[in-house]
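In practice, a research group might receive sequence data for several interacting partners and want a quick structural hypothesis before committing to experiments. The following worked case mirrors that situation: the sequences arrive first, and a predicted assembly follows.
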Amino acid sequence: MQGVPPPPGGGGGGGGSGVDPTLSTNNSYIGGFYGAFQNAIIDDSFNFIDALLGHSHSDTPGAPPAPAGLGYAADKSRTPMIDKALAAGQPAPRFQDWAAWAASSYEDALYTGNRRNPGERMHASSGIFGIDRKFDDWAFGFVAGIGRNTLTQNNTDDGGRIDATRLGGYASYRPATGYSPPPRQPAGRRSRRAGSARLRHPSTPTPPAPPSRPRGSSNSGA
Amino acid sequence: MLQPLAGAVYTHLHTGGFIESGGTGFEVAGNAADVDSLRGYVGLRALSTVTVHGTALTPELRARVLQDFLSMRRDLTVSYLGDPTTALLASGIVQRHTAARYGGGLEARPMANWRLAVGYDVEVRGRSVAHLLNGAVRVAW
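A structural hypothesis for the assembly, expressed as tokens:
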């Protein structure tokens, strides 16, 4: 990237309202475009971390999902005594320990200029891949990604490109949720709603029917 | 279901010095620069899950307010190669500290251990606008 001669007519025609043609053109001469790269890199960093965190929602069935990244839930109950007491209750489902995820994004951004800078347009695309493993309430993972940002200055068509490779590690802590009561149901009906609680009220266990004995069989042994 | 969102991201950016090449006579040498950014956000999202042909679908609407707590100046000092004693300030765009990002998404769970998601967001920061498309897939085993 380098400075370019002013566009025909003295330059500064495409910077939008409020742009001083002389100042913006001079700024493009002396490298004001490099400031746009700082904005692009910082914005890209924020978007990368934002995607990685994924807002960290629970992975429990029926619970809110996570767009990507770290959403998971621990598979260990915080109420083991209640679990034991509710022996007839269904145990919390065992979730997988390993997870792999991939995410991609595309961004079209217009940085509107100011009096000294004509502004830029940016196209950014990226892809990231992560793998993590759970240990009780914790998840640890690695992530790798690539990205490309292309910037074009508004009034000079001066352009540049940022190619990025990202490697990183992450950790997330999400304690298991405790007991939450199931929704009220009319008498005699059993809730069929799944996943709203890690622990469920035990339904009255129905004793299994005794196996029918084939005719002619006998319990007598030898 | 409504869910609050909050977070913060700190970024330190160091750019090394550089020297332009060319024959226009306007080539510059730039100094190294350091920029710090601390961006926090609060927001809210609304979502609900329905099951269609055995696939759990979760549409979502979300909105966040982003706030930059540090300086938004993006400058660096340069000098012409032909006149290295004169330092000039190259001014990048100074964006506003506050932005709004809102959008929506859809997640599908065709199986218990598979998740597919797509989303679209718009970020408005003063007169600057960014459109973001994203997609993700996650499998657990």
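Before designing any experiment, note the following. The beta strands of chain A are 98-112, 119-135, 138-153, 159-173. The first helix of chain A runs from residue 21 to 29.
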